[in-house]
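worker-3 :: picked Glucose-1-phosphate adenylyltransferase
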Amino acid sequence: MAKIFTMVLAGGKGERLNPLTEQRAKPAVPFGGKYRIIDFTLSNCLNSGLRQIAVLIQYKSHSLDRHIRIGWNILNAELGEYITSVPPQQRISEDWYRGTADAVFQNLFLLDPEQPEYLLVLAGDHIYKMNYADMYNLMQEKQADAVVGAIETPLADANRFGVIGVDEDHRILSFDEKPDKPMAIPGDPAHAYVSMGIYLFRTEVVREQLIRDAKEGTKHDFGRNIIPRMIKENRVYAFKFQDENKKAVKYWRDIGTLDAYWEANMDLVAVDPLFNLYDKAWPIRTYQGQFPPAKFVFAQDFQGGRMGVALDSIVCGGCIISGGRVQNSVLSPHVRVHDHADVRESVVMENVVIGEHARIRRAIIDKDVIIPPKTVIGFDPVADRQRFKVTDSGLVVISKGMKLHAAVDSSG
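worker-3 :: tokens ->
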């Protein structure tokens, strides 16, 4: 694994997650209470033995850059190990990244001091567990020039992804973006392989391909341009996703929409969640803030309905549930829930205050929001749409730092 240099693509705008991406890049969006989305990819890298990692950032990069600097500055630079964020350098032109391939092309200079034999390209906005060493082993076994991470998907759903057509030896024959008729896996007519956005290349081969692509009028995208041409000219294989999550169903999520984001968080509070955060053999790292323990108070007044309690929920450090009720929810650090407040099926981010007698259901509340006493959210879609972002499913999303006024938002 010391022969591999890793680039994590973290420059997308994440527009479908707006307003959560209004002030931050998608990989920096909080997830699961204490994590950021990018933590899962970076944890995979560490758990796989990768030690030279560049995170390529672009839009609204401050939050992500800060998180990497204070939370992931854990390797020894004297040993040539590092995780670093790299903004657009504009060494080649004044263009921003024009696509995934162009992002790597503009940062090929990072490879010059290291001279790695292999380049691993990852997306920084997916949630999954994977040992990338398994891809490397397949590359050696097949003497491949490139290996593409692939996951089985029902054939009826595969047309929403980049579909990988393979032969019986898993050599890739075709790579089609959102085809009308996806190619089934040999021996499994009910499923197709779709791309996970994970690519392992021989450095000298991909360097040549990227230089050629930069001179042509393409989309400068790995899935649309680089991989299809490499299939014709090089040995390219599909790696069948081996899930380190150790569940009956493989877990890989691109939480690209607000509803998908909420559903993935709600899975974490289930009795038996699909995604396991508690596996000591595959730890998920993040920045650990200096927060006091979570606290639940006013049990002595339970007969009057004033009891601090959280059920089927994740509650992070620094939270105080002060006479309120939290159920089926995810609370990030430093959340306050006051007397008789009721929070259900919600994702509540850092430094949010829930006022007395407030009622909240199926909501995502971003950081630094103060919910006034007696506020009602998630029960009246018409009223909610006048104040907040509401998805088609009725999920209410409140922007970071949004100011709510009790005179408007309270009900008797």
